[in-house]
Design brief:
Layout (H helix, E strand, L loop, with lengths): L2 H15 L6 H8 L3 H4 L6 H12 L12 H18 L15 H13 L7 H31 L11 H8 L9 H5 L17 H20 L2
InterPro entries: Homeodomain-like_sf (IPR009057), HTH-type_TetR-like_transc_reg (IPR050109), HTH_TetR (IPR001647), Repressor_TetR_C (IPR004111), Tet_transcr_reg_TetR-rel_C_sf (IPR036271)
Pfam families: TetR_C_1 (PF02909), TetR_N (PF00440)
Keywords: DNA-binding, Transcription, Transcription regulation
């Protein structure tokens, strides 16, 4: 048994059944060992979750960046989003402090490399890293829960089992909601109609990312 086998097994369990399904007992059983044997490698479940998080952020970082910092920061954000997309349970891990594990530090270092020539101080650069990673995390957290709600028919309305589209068509009329109604009719309000055509993770994520980068670009230009 190796530490990598333990972490990979825990990730497989979390990918299938969620973070709450991960336990030292289940991981040990999946590997054919006793729980006590697992503790020789990992002191606690909290440590195991930390190792899982670091393992899935093993992003392939390019050796060189392109000439356009904005293009590079977009690639950075998309790679972060891909991790949350592939492993939805990442959203359930609370922030316990600044990143200190190897892969997390590699990612931060990559982002700082991209911004190395920008007229920003260290605190501003770190704030941008936090802003972009938060955008990916929050969007995926929201999208994951909305996907679950759509799939199970759960929603905030009084009639369980009714689809979002059916509920909106019934509730949102032009007389009651004159400005919301055309948005609903266009299919832009319901998560069942999320537009991913030409967008890696949906229009809302890409639109938000582009506007964040617009703001950063404007701020950078103001300091030149």
């Amino acid at each position: 048994m190796s530490l990598k086998q333990i972490v990979d097994s825990a990730i497989a369990i979390a990918d299938k059944d969620g973070l709450s399904a991960v336990s030292m007992n289940k991981v040990a059983a999946a590997l054919g060992f006793t729980t006590m044997a697992l503790y020789r490698y990992v002191p606690s479940k909290e440590d195991l979750v930390l190792l899982m998080q670091d393992a899935v952020f093993d992003i392939s970082i390019p050796e060189e960046d392109s000439a356009q910092w904005r293009e590079n920061m977009c690639a950075f954000a998309l790679d972060i989003m891909r991790c949350f997309q592939d492993h939805p349970w990442l959203c359930d891990i609370p922030a316990s402090g600044i990143p200190i594990t190897p892969n997390n530090l590699r990612i931060v270092d990559w982002a700082l490399r991209i911004m190395s020539d920008l007229p920003l101080d260290h605190r501003e650069k770190i704030s941008i890293v936090v802003m972009l990673t938060s955008h990916a995390r929050v969007h995926r957290f929201f999208q994951r829960d909305m996907d679950r709600a759509v799939q199970t028919g759960v929603h905030s309305g009084p009639v369980p089992g009714v689809s979002y589209k059916a509920a909106l068509d019934h509730l949102v009329t032009s007389e009651r909601f004159p400005y919301l109604s055309p948005v609903v009719l266009a299919g832009a309000y319901s998560p069942e109609n999320d537009d991913k055509d030409g967008h890696a993770y949906g229009f809302e994520f890409d639109f938000g990312l582009a506007r964040i980068l617009d703001g950063i670009e404007h701020y950078v230009n103001s300091k030149l």
